[in-house]
Amino acid sequence: MKQLKLLYAGKAKSVYRTENPGELVIKFRDDITAFDGQKKDTLAEKGHLNAGVSAFFFGLLEKNGINTHLIRKIDDTTMLAHHLAMIPLEVIVRNIAAGSMVKNYPVEKGTPLNPPVIVIDFKDDTRHDPMLNDDLIYALKLASPEELHELKRIALEVNTVLREYLAGRGIDLVDFKLEFGKKDGVIYVGDEISMDSMRLWDKKTGESLDKDVYRTGQGDVITQYHHVASRIMAEE
Ligand code: 5GP
């Protein structure tokens, strides 16, 4: 498998073509950003920590019958993935109120959300990822009603799998963001599932184990990412 031309460079990952048009190489870089890229840094080891956790979670989802773009890990920072036609939606599942939900609505941080709340944002940095509703999604032709139903169903299934798994590791899955894509009419979970795209709280101490450490500037991000990655991936 040869890594060819750069197809796309995002804020923390670069995507390359391979000689097989159906497969891409995704490289997790050491870059970290927050607040629409206004805060940025390069932190050694971040790429391999997020690649490791993402590949681990994709493997866990596959074991539970959920399609993901992961074909296999190539090395510490790189994975081979199915080439999807990405759907420009950020599907967020919330189990506990935090982040923008607390900022924008009258709900206290830490309030359990039962059933979980699904929020869908339009993936468009230039517009600051505005929140969508079903009618807007149809009007903008971002997904059909059947596809949207399927995206929500898969997102809740992913939530069940990850939440139970993390609970076993003493971690609350507060919220997370998924991105989806299509290949041959099938919907796959794409992008990444890592400390950059989830909120994780230690069940006992309530301590943040995710990108909020970077957003708030409290504590050493890489030390925390190491700690949570080893908790997530440790053998039982
Ligand atoms: P919030 O809406 O509270 O900012 O984010 C909810 C959850 O989705 C958090 O776990 C957050 O990390 C994730 N999330 C929301 N938007 C983005 C985004 O543009 N990029 C990444 N990596 N994660 C996001």
Task: Draw up the topology in text.
Layout: E1 3-9, E2 13-18, E3 23-28, E4 31-34, E5 39-42, H1 46-63, E6 70-75, E7 78-82, E8 85-86, E9 89-96, H2 99-104, E10 112-122, H3 134-139, H4 145-168, E11 171-178, E12 180-183, E13 186-189, E14 198-202, H5 212-216, H6 221-233
Antiparallel strand pairs: 1-2, 2-3, 3-7, 4-5, 6-7, 8-12, 9-10, 9-11, 11-14, 12-13
Helix pairs in contact: 1-6
Residues 90, 92, 99-101, 129, 175-177, 196-199, 211 line the site of guanosine-5'-monophosphate.
Helical fraction = 25-40%
Structural class: alpha+beta
Percent range for β-strand residues: 25-35%
Report, as a whole number of angstroms, the end-to-end distance: 33 Å
Low-confidence stretches: none
Number of helices: 6
Structural commentary:
Helices cover 31% and strands 34% of the residues. By secondary structure, the protein is an alpha+beta fold. It has two domains: 3-82, Phosphorylase Kinase, domain 1 (2-Layer Sandwich), CATH 3.30.200.20; 86-220, 2-Layer Sandwich (D-amino Acid Aminotransferase, Chain A, domain 1). Strands 1-2-3-7-6 form a five-stranded antiparallel sheet. Strands 10-9-11-14 form a four-stranded antiparallel sheet, with helices on one face. A hairpin with a 2-residue loop joins strand 12 and strand 13 (186-189). Helix 1 packs parallel to helix 6. The two termini are 33 Å apart. The model has no long low-confidence stretch (mean pLDDT 97). Residues 90, 92, 99-101, 129, 175-177, 196-199, 211 line the site of guanosine-5'-monophosphate. The site of guanosine-5'-monophosphate has 14 residues, from strand 9, helix 2, strand 11 and strand 14.
